[in-house]
Design a protein that fits this description.
The protein contains 2 helices and no strands. It is mainly alpha-helical and 124 residues long. It has one domain.
Length: 124
């Protein structure tokens, strides 16, 4: 009889060890893998945002210099502020466009998506 009790204990320990192993794999699968994916997305998002910001600054400086040099005497004298004002307006419009693009698809809390919107459709 002692032999049968030993076999049951060994089987119980093996089942417990297997359960711990399964739970450990599940925790790693459901926490660490998504965190790694989130980290990759964050790195690429920050890098993309920096590249877009540098490109936007270069484009705005180019626009300012073009307005100052290529318009002849249109912005000379009392109108020397106009290229700066136009460049600032272009920067504000670009910023508004980037913000609108960033918030597209964001649903307000408590509101329901429209029937034809992408948020209400099944994603398969």
């Amino acid at each position: 009889m002692a032999k049968g009790a030993d076999d049951g204990t060994k089987k119980g320990r093996a089942a417990f060890g297997e359960t711990v192993s399964v739970v450990r794999r599940y925790v790693v699968q459901e926490t660490l893998a998504p965190l790694r994916q989130l980290g990759r997305r964050l790195v690429f998002g920050v890098a993309g945002a920096l590249l877009i910001a540098v490109g936007a600054v270069i484009a705005l400086v180019g626009m300012l210099r073009a307005l100052q040099t290529e318009t002849g005497h249109a912005f000379a004298g009392n109108w020397s502020f106009a290229p700066y004002l136009l460049t600032m307006a272009a920067a504000a419009a670009a910023l508004a466009g980037f913000v609108a693009f960033g918030f597209r698809g964001v649903v307000k809390a408590g509101s329901r998506p429209r029937a034809g919107s992408a948020a209400g459709k099944d994603k398969r």
